[in-house]
Amino acid sequence: MLPEFINIGFKPVSIMLLIFLMGIICWCFILWFEAKKDGFNSEKFFDLVFSSVILSLLSYHGLRSLTGWLEIYHPSNFLLRPDREMFLGIVVFLVSLLPILVFSKKWKWSVFRIVDIYAMATNILLMFLSLGKFLVHPQREYISLFLLLLFLYLFVMRYRGYKFLSGAIFSMFLFSIVLFLLLFSGKSGYLLFSGLLVTISMLNLYLRGKKTMNKSIMPEHFLEGLKKKLVSKEKNLEMEQQALIKEDPYLQHGRDVDNAEVMDEVLEDTGKTVSDARLGIVKSMKVQIRKALAAIKLGRYGKCEVCGKPIDRARLEAYPEATTCIDCATNVSQEEDVKEDEILEKQLGE
């Protein structure tokens, strides 16, 4: 087992502090990676994260000093009496969600997707802390929490994007914490804490389900027609991809490598560049088509994956693989153009 402190230079440093810092690094990485994968603007997303962290720290320190002398709630029942740290954890957790609600509305982001990302990152952070606690103080509850969170993370990674509606991961994370508290926690107030987490989880699922039920349902024949178009497009792209692979100049039979003329090599390299570019476009188009087909299967087709608003039918008829409305697609395109211009300016400056 690990000691509680190690000497770094002439100063003892807590092992848990080092583990916490490693967990925070992984927490930030998961936030960045998942946000980027889901198509969120990285800079805006970290503005949201920074606001959430700062607000949480301020509320924690403010409430910690407040609860030191103010007794708000002290029932006689042990199971309902809140532990001080648990009470602070509840409030800080709730406060950390406020920037998500504010910024998601301002930027027209899906709050359910954001809380899913938060849940996954926090899951990793708690895994670090629980494993660290077990290594320093080997107790059953710490390793049990670690294994529970590890199972949840692997389960989500295996099925995310195929089986879950956005928001479900957040609720599963909260239910996992509740399960741990009910099975292993002996602290006062764990029933109160568990009840609050269950309430938040159920409210999240209710609002997510309500949003799904309120979406406009497309006529079956219209949806079926678009699905056939997508399947046909996917087949054509698959054939085009195979043809491009066969036409790759570097893979041609009898290719002269050692004795080729300089001009022939230049033409070959140019052809390779063009072929790779076309192949990349075809692959990205296939990915977009598969996203649209998955959306049809999950009942999400026709709603913008960024803002959640219905996509215009004319846009879907002209571009059935669309998963964003025209406004969000334009915003994303403009942001990408700005980034490309910035990169070009840097290259020219160098």
UniProtKB/TrEMBL annotation:
Q: Give the dksA C4-type zinc finger regions.
A: 304-328
Q: Kindly provide the name given to this protein in its UniProt entry.
A: Zinc finger DksA/TraR C4-type domain-containing protein
**Domain spans labelled Zinc finger DksA/TraR C4-type:** 299-330
Specify the species: candidate division WWE3 bacterium
Keywords of this protein's UniProt record, alphabetized?
Membrane, Metal-binding, Transmembrane, Transmembrane helix, Zinc, Zinc-finger
Residue stretches spanning the membrane = 12-33, 45-63, 86-103, 115-136, 142-157, 164-184, 190-207
| Pfam families (alphabetical) | zf-dskA_traR (PF01258)
Question: What are the GO MF terms of this UniProt record?
Answer: zinc ion binding
Return the PANTHER family for the record.
GENERAL STRESS PROTEIN 16O, RNA POLYMERASE-BINDING TRANSCRIPTION FACTOR DKSA-RELATED
